[in-house]
C-alpha cells in the first residue's frame, strides 16, 4: 500500500515494506494512508472492512480498538501532542487481541500533519513467560496476587504492571501505567545522583538491589519504596523486571515498636517512682490525718495541717496518673451505669467548664452496664473535659454522651478498631474548639507530650486517659480537624449485671474499732509504724514484721490465733503472696488483705483477684485503713477466695 506514490518515496517505502515491525500512517481524520505488509498480515481485515469489501468483519472488540487508535491519532493532530502509547487488549482467557501501539506525529514539508503508528514484535511480558492463552492469564493473575508492585520496563517505560503497582502509584488500573516512564514516578526531591546510578544500572542490564527511592503517586502524595530490578531473561537486554515494595507499612510498624518500647521504658520508670513516692505519701498523709484529729491544735496549726493534706492529695493524684498511663495500677472495678457516673459529676463539670462554655451532658435510656474502676472513669472524663475547655478560650460547647453500640467486623473496620466484635457502651466527649493539627494528632497519647505553654501542663493528661481506658479493657479513638473541634470516643465492653452498691468511707472512729489480732508485714519502717499506731489506737492487738521470713518466725512463736494478715506484696526474701499461702496452709480461716504502692509485673505474678481478696492501694489514710480492716474482719469465713491460681486485676 504506497504512501503517496511519489517517485522520491519509493526507496523509503521499499525499506518500510520489509521492516518486521508493524507500521502504519494515518491522516488527521484517522483514515489509513499507509500500512506495511507486517501490519496488513495481522490487521488487514480492519482495512478491508473499513473499505466496505465483502469479507468477514473483525470482532467488535477489535473494531473498537482500531477506532480508539484512530481517535488518539486525531487527538494528536488536534492538540499537537507528542507520542502516545495505547495499552494492549486481552480477551478474558488471556489471549492477546491487540498489541501495544505507539502513535506519534509525522511532520513533512509537503504534507499536512500526519500520525505514524508502530507495533513492536512481541509483548515483553508475554515473551518473558513464554506462554500464551490460559497460561498467560494464569501468570497475570499470579502477579496480581503478589503483595509487592511488579512492573516490566522497556527502555525506561512501563510495558506491563500488576495490580499492586496500580495501588502503589494511585492508578485506577494497571493499564494506566503502561507507556509511562518509570522515572516519572520518582519524587522531584529524590537525590538525582542516586537516581542516575539506578538508571545507569538498568541501561547496562545490571541488577539493582534494595535501593530506597522516594516516589510520587498520581495523586501527588509521596511514598517511599524499596526498588529491586534485574534483566528479564529471554527478552533482550532492553527489558527489566522491577519490584517495588511499599515501605510505609514497614515504617509504621517500626514506629509502633519504637513507641511501644518508649512507653514501656517510661512506664517502668514511672512505676518505680510511684512505688517509692507512694510509701512516702502514705506516711505524710497518714500522719497529717492523725494530726488533724488532735483537738488541741490552734487555728494556725490546723490550717498548716490542711495545707499538708491538700498537697499530699495532689501528689497522690500525680502518682495515680503515672501508674495509669503506664497501666501499672491496680484497678478496683465495679459494675456501673455511666449515666449515674455522669450525673454525679455534673456540678464538678459545670464548675470546671466555666461561664463561657455550654456544657451538654446527655443520658441514654436503657444504657448497658460496664465494669470499670469508677474513680478512674471519672478521672478520664475530667481530663478530656479540661482539654476541651482549654481548646475553647473564647467559649464554645462541650458535649458528653453515652450510648449502646454493636460493633461487627464491618463497623470495626470502618472505625479502624482492633477489637473483637460484640456489644459495647461508647462514651463520646466532643468540643467545638480549635481542633488538633494532623501532625500533632498522632502524638497526643504519648507521655509528657503537650502543646501547652511551659508550666501549663504536665503532658500526662491524655496518656493517663489512654492508659486507664486500655487497662479497663476498652478502646479510645480521636477525630479532629483544625478549627472544627475534637471528638474522643471510648468503647467499653457491655456486660449483664446489676450495678455494684457503693459504700462511702466511714470517719466515725467508734465504728472502726476492734480487739482482734492483726499481723502487719511491711518492709518500709515508716509505713509499718503508721499502720501499727493507727490500728493500736483503735483497740487492735498488732504484731509486726519486716518481711515474710520474719513473719513466719513470729507466728511460730506466737500461741494465739491471728485474725488478719495485712501484708505488702513485694518484699525481700519472701513476698506477701507466698507468706499468705504458708499461713493459710496452717490456718485456713485466716483473713488476708494486701497493700502496695507499686503494681509492676512482679506483683501481677504474685497477686490476687482484687474483687475477691482485699487490696489496699498506697497511699491510704488512717480512716481508709481502719474501714477496710473492719470490713474484712466482719466478713463471714469462706468469703475470701483461695489464693492458689488467682491473678490480680491489672494489666502490664
UniProtKB/TrEMBL annotation:
<dbReference type="Pfam" id="PF02518">
    <property type="entry name" value="HATPase_c"/>
</dbReference>
<dbReference type="InterPro" id="IPR003594">
    <property type="entry name" value="HATPase_dom"/>
</dbReference>
<dbReference type="InterPro" id="IPR000014">
    <property type="entry name" value="PAS"/>
</dbReference>
<keyword id="KW-0597">Phosphoprotein</keyword>
<feature type="domain" description="PAS">
    <location>
        <begin position="135"/>
        <end position="205"/>
    </location>
</feature>
<dbReference type="InterPro" id="IPR036890">
    <property type="entry name" value="HATPase_C_sf"/>
</dbReference>
<feature type="modified residue" description="4-aspartylphosphate">
    <location>
        <position position="568"/>
    </location>
</feature>
<feature type="domain" description="Histidine kinase">
    <location>
        <begin position="272"/>
        <end position="496"/>
    </location>
</feature>
<dbReference type="InterPro" id="IPR036097">
    <property type="entry name" value="HisK_dim/P_sf"/>
</dbReference>
<keyword id="KW-0418">Kinase</keyword>
<dbReference type="InterPro" id="IPR013767">
    <property type="entry name" value="PAS_fold"/>
</dbReference>
<keyword id="KW-0808">Transferase</keyword>
<dbReference type="GO" id="GO:0006355">
    <property type="term" value="P:regulation of DNA-templated transcription"/>
</dbReference>
<keyword id="KW-0067">ATP-binding</keyword>
<dbReference type="InterPro" id="IPR035965">
    <property type="entry name" value="PAS-like_dom_sf"/>
</dbReference>
<protein>
    <recommendedName>
        <fullName>histidine kinase</fullName>
        <ecNumber>2.7.13.3</ecNumber>
    </recommendedName>
</protein>
<dbReference type="Pfam" id="PF00072">
    <property type="entry name" value="Response_reg"/>
</dbReference>
<dbReference type="GO" id="GO:0000155">
    <property type="term" value="F:phosphorelay sensor kinase activity"/>
</dbReference>
<dbReference type="Pfam" id="PF00512">
    <property type="entry name" value="HisKA"/>
</dbReference>
<keyword id="KW-0902">Two-component regulatory system</keyword>
<dbReference type="InterPro" id="IPR001789">
    <property type="entry name" value="Sig_transdc_resp-reg_receiver"/>
</dbReference>
<dbReference type="InterPro" id="IPR005467">
    <property type="entry name" value="His_kinase_dom"/>
</dbReference>
<dbReference type="GO" id="GO:0005524">
    <property type="term" value="F:ATP binding"/>
</dbReference>
<keyword id="KW-0547">Nucleotide-binding</keyword>
<feature type="domain" description="Response regulatory">
    <location>
        <begin position="517"/>
        <end position="633"/>
    </location>
</feature>
<dbReference type="InterPro" id="IPR011006">
    <property type="entry name" value="CheY-like_superfamily"/>
</dbReference>
<dbReference type="InterPro" id="IPR003661">
    <property type="entry name" value="HisK_dim/P_dom"/>
</dbReference>
<dbReference type="Pfam" id="PF00989">
    <property type="entry name" value="PAS"/>
</dbReference>
<dbReference type="InterPro" id="IPR004358">
    <property type="entry name" value="Sig_transdc_His_kin-like_C"/>
</dbReference>
